[in-house]
Every structure is written in C-alpha cells, then in structure tokens.
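Exercise 4. Each item below gives a protein and its sequence. For each, produce the structure-token representation.

Item: Glycosyl transferase family 2 (Rosistilla carotiformis).
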Amino acid sequence: MTPTTLSAARPSARLRKAEANARPLVTIFTVLKPFVGEADTHQRNALASWQMLGPDVEILLFSDTSIPDDLRARFTCLPCIATNELGTPLLDDVFRVAADIARGSVRAFVNGDIVLDQRFTHSVRRLQDSDLASWLAIGQRTELDVPAAVQHPAAGWLDDCFQKCETQGELASVVCKDYFIFTADLFQDLPAFAIGRGNWDNWMVAHSKSNGIPVVDITAVAPVIHQRHGYAHVSGGRGAVYVSGPEAKENQRLAGGRHLISGSTANWRFDKSGIRRVRWTSWTLCKDAFRFAGLLLRMLMRSD
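Answer:
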C-alpha cells in the first residue's frame, strides 16, 4: 500500500480529533405535550434553556401533536409513532429512534418542562471522563413557580430563575425523577412504557442497579428546575397519573412491580468532593421521609 493510499484510508490524528470535537457531548431527547396553556409556557422556557447550552448539546423533540413552526425551524422534530389504546406515546419507540439517530456520546431523556443550565453539561463531561465505563445519572429537581412566558432570549432570565431557586424553590422527593442521563450503550431497548405515567422511572434505576450499572446522584452539582404545573390534563389527576390509573398500573406490570425503594436511590454520588460509591442507600430514603410524606399528602388532597 502506498503512503498516499494509507493517508486516504486512515485520517490523520488531527482530523480524528477535529471529528470527535465536532460530535455533541450529549443528545437530549424528550416527548412534548401539546403546546397549549401552561404547557406551552413551560416547554418554551425549558427548550430555550437547553438551546443555551450550546454546541455540546443535540436536541431531539418527539411529539404526537403539532409542534409550532418557530420551534420546528430551530430543533430536530420527530413524530411519536407508537401509542397505547388511550393515545399516550410509548417510550420503547422513542428510545429506539433516539438510539438510532443520536450523535451524542451520552444520551439524556429529560422531561419537557425542566430548565437546565451549564452545570448540567459540566456534570455530564465529568462523568464521561471518569473511571466509570457505563453509568446512569439521576437527580432531584427543585420545584419553582414560573410566571408568564419569558421573551427568549431575555438577558439574565436563566440566572434569575436559578437564583430564585435558592430562596423560593423547594427540593422535590427522590421519588420524583425528571431526567435520566446515560451512556450510549444503555437503554436501546426497554418495555413499552406509557410516557408521563408512574413506575417506569423507578424501573430505569432498579434495572440498572440489578445489572451492575452505577446509578449516580448528581443533585449536588447539577440543580434543575421543575416548573410547577397541574394535572388536570389527565382524568383522575396526579394520583391516577402515578398510582391508580390504568396506564400507571400497566407500567407497573411491565416493570415487574413498583420498585419504589430500589428505584428511588442512587448507589453513587457526585458532589464537590468528586464521584464516589454510596454505602448506605437506605439513609437517602430516611432523609427524604418528610418530602415523600408531603408528596403523598398532596396526591391525596388534590385531583388537579
């Protein structure tokens, strides 16, 4: 083989490095609600924050309804093909399509109303550069009331939101999981869970731990904002969404149980001191008892 042929067949180290740098760090994908009322406001706020993360992030938007034209011009938009008999999109199809087309070396399924900042991608990069080969990262959200739609891009709006979290935000229970960050070798196939209903999120954590995959809690280094909203869009309200409704029960069947304990705790932690294994995961649930009790009370007291 001549030197010329060898050069054409094998790109130079400089070219390979340039190609690697051009690849996004993480592909964020989500399933969106119809852009009506508070869902329109919250999803636009969330998407604006994701876009501000810059070239490190690729964004894929799935929906079974129409996505507004102004967003279609800015994002990669894909249809939800598979739904259950009630018309709710199924996650196995979404995860499969995302696995096929995502360019990021890390994947992140994030609920469409979650606001992120640069600490999210910084944490992903640290995990990618760690000694962990495969991993799943989760974390607690901070609940925050967000007023009317922000005119994006508005200078300082994202910083203002996270500053308000420190005085007005409320850290949610560990059982509330709004994002899953994972290496590209994981979750290319999963049961046909209904999106936005209970029990599938616990399965993600419990299944990973049972297969020896480290589950890392990144709450301390990557705060995220959940914009408070109601549940009037689902018959029966919040309790039906997560516990008593037919879709929540079907998710429970597919998951092989609720996995409330094993599916709510990480066995690794990433904080200011670094990434390390957690010895006593039950202590996490003990510390969370009051938050979990408050969540149950709100589910019993309200149907919206």
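Check: The longest strand covers residues 57-63.
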